[in-house]
Amino acid sequence: ARGAESSPAPEKKGAAAEEDDFGYRLFPDRNKKPQSFLARSLFTFHNRCQVMLRMTLETNPYAQLLLEAMKQSGCTVFNDRHFSCENCDGCVSGGFDAATSQIVLCQNNIRQQSHMNRVVTHELIHAFDHCRAHVDWFKNVKHLACSEIRAANLSGDCTLMNEIARFKFGLKGHHQTCVRDRAVRSILAVRNVSKETAEKAVDEVFDACFNDLEPFGRIPHSKADARRAYRDFQNRDRYNANL
After folding, report:
1. Closest CA to 21 of 195, 192, 183
2. Least confident of 7-11, 24-28, 212-216
3. InterPro entries, per this entry (predicted)?
4. Which of 110, 137, 198, 214 has the greatest CB tally within 10 Å of its CB?
């Protein structure tokens, strides 16, 4: 998915907030009071977002595998608790708010089901990392870089068709280049750091995090790959249950 798909954080007070708001400026609805059901129902963006989200969670193999993996890790995801359709600034598509364990979906910027599928998958990978590891989203840029690498690598962000749609073409090492570039872009969108700092963090953890394929067990380059990975994941659990 396009833009920042990373983890915002609690607001800072005073001068520190001006230095780094951890990406919260991109998600202005985070600090607003929730709208009433009637008010939300009048906004077609919100309704469309909810419908597309439901479709993703019920039919997309990437999302289904991640939801099952999180449940088995003790982090069951609930639609009405852990997802929030909101208006966002700029071209950001979504974010994982680690402070509330909630995925933000940018209802004003997600207009196609395929886009929703990628954003939900991308953010669920962040949520999965948050569940299984002690990720220091806000102070350790290498932790953030690792999850961004994994999200770009495993969510379908860098499939050949998506890259062609962005008018980016390449052969040898193209997937790795896409993953690296998108991880750097995501860090820069939500953290007040230099490009050099973001690139250094990504490079330092790239090999280990690019090769961490959990819970997929492979890089799912297509829905067919994701379906096979989901089936393998389910069978792996059956095997472990019989040990």
Report:
1. 192
2. 7-11
3. Peptidase_M76_ATP23 (IPR019165)
4. 110
**135 class by beta-carbon count within 10 Å (0-12 exposed, 13-18 middle, 19+ buried):** middle
227 CB neighbour count, 10 Å cutoff: 16
Whole-prediction pTM? 0.80
Domain ranges of the chain: 23-134, 135-221
- Percentage of the chain beyond pLDDT 70 is 74
Query: Residue 67: how many CB atoms within 10 A of its CB?
Result: 21
Catalytic residue annotation: 123
3-state secondary structure at position 102 = strand
**Which of 5, 140, 142, 120 has its CA nearest to residue 70?**
120
State how beta strands 83-86 and 102-106 pair: parallel
Pick the CATH number of 23-134 from 3.40.50, 2.60.40, 2.30.30, 3.30.2010: 3.30.2010
Torsion of CA 198, 203, 207, 209, to 10 degrees: -10
> What pLDDT, on a 0 to 100 scale, did the predictor assign at position 83?
96
β-pairing, 94-97 vs 102-106, is antiparallel
pLDDT at 19 over 80: no
